[in-house]
Amino acid sequence: MPYKLKPDLEGGQKVIDLLRGAGFKATANTKFDWIHDTFLIVIRMFPNCVPPPAVIVSANSRYDPHFHCRMGAALRPLRYDDTLIIGSGGTVHNLYRNHWTHMLRFCDNFAQPVPPDPWALEFRQALQDAVLNHTGPELRRAVTRLMKHPRYREAHGTDDHFMANLFVAGAAGAPEDVGPNKLLAECWELVNMCNTQYQLGEWQ
Predict the structure, then answer these.
(1) How distant is the alpha carbon of residue 47 from its chain centre?
(2) Worst-scoring range by mean pLDDT, 39-43, 80-84, 198-202?
(3) Measuring CA to CA, how many Å separate 141 from each of 42, 97, 137?
(4) Which range of residues forms the domain containing residue 138?
(5) Is 8 inside any structural domain?
(6) How far are the Cα atoms of 34, 68, 176, 179 from residue 37, in angstroms, in the given order?
(7) Where does the record place the Extradiol ring-cleavage dioxygenase class III enzyme subunit B domain (predicted)?
(8) CA angle 18-171-68, nearest 5°?
(9) Mapping DSSP to helix (H, G, I), strand (E, B) and coil, where does residue 142 land?
(10) Coil, strand or helix: which one is 99?
C-alpha cells in the first residue's frame, strides 16, 4: 500500500490507560494490520500528506450498546487533548440486502438504478433524527434506543457497523456537550447502504 499510515504508539498507550482506568480490560494488539474500514477515512481526510498519528480502538464482539457508549465516554477527555475521535461505522449497512449487480458487472458501487428500499430510508432518517435533535446524555440514549428500532435488523444484518455510532455518542454525550451536531456529507451505495458523516460539537 503506497499510502503511509502512521500508528500512534504513545497515544495508543494513553487510550489503553484511560480504558483500564474506567474498568475495561484493554490490551494492545501488536499484530493488528490496517484494514479498509480503518484507513479509508484517514486517506480521504488527508489525501496528499502524511496523516496525523492514529490509534484504532476495536469493538467488543458481544456488541453491547451500553458497553460501547461507556468506551466512548472513557475516551472523552482526549477531545480536549488535540485528538479527533472518529467513529467509522455505518448508517445503513446490511450486505445481505444490497444490490450487487452493478458492482459485479461494472465495478460501480455508487450506481443507484432504483431508489433505496423504504426500510433503509426509514432507519437512515431515524439515526439522523437521533444525532441532530439530541445532545449530551440524551444523544447517548437516543442512539442506544435505535437498536430496538423496528427497522434496525433490516438496516444492520450484523451489529458490528453500528457500534461506532454508540462509541461516538459516548465520547460526545456528556452533559456539557451541547452541540451543535451537524450532518456534513452523505452517500448511498449498492442501493441500500448509506454512509453519513456527522460532526458532533464545534472545532476549537
Answers:
(1) 20
(2) 39-43
(3) 28, 27, 6
(4) 90-200
(5) no
(6) 8, 18, 30, 26
(7) 3-174
(8) 80
(9) helix
(10) coil
> Per the domain annotation, does 63 fall within a domain?
no
Cβ atoms of 203 and 182 within 8 Å: the answer is no
99 in any annotated domain: yes
Tally the domains of the chain. Answer: 1
Give me the CATH number covering residue 172: 3.40.830.10
Name the residue type at position 133.
N
Domain assignment present for 1: no
Res 37: pLDDT? 77
Per residue in 123-162, pLDDT (tens digit) is 999 999 999 999 999 999 999 999 999 999 999 999 999 9
pTM of the model: 0.92
- Nearest CA to 140 among 185, 87, 193? 87
Contact 65, 165 (CB under 8 A): no
- Tell me how far CA of residue 132 lies from CA of 24, 72, 127, 175, in angstroms: 29, 18, 9, 16
19-51 tens-digit pLDDT: 999 999 999 998 888 888 778 888 888 888 888
The three cell numbers of residue 112 are 443507484
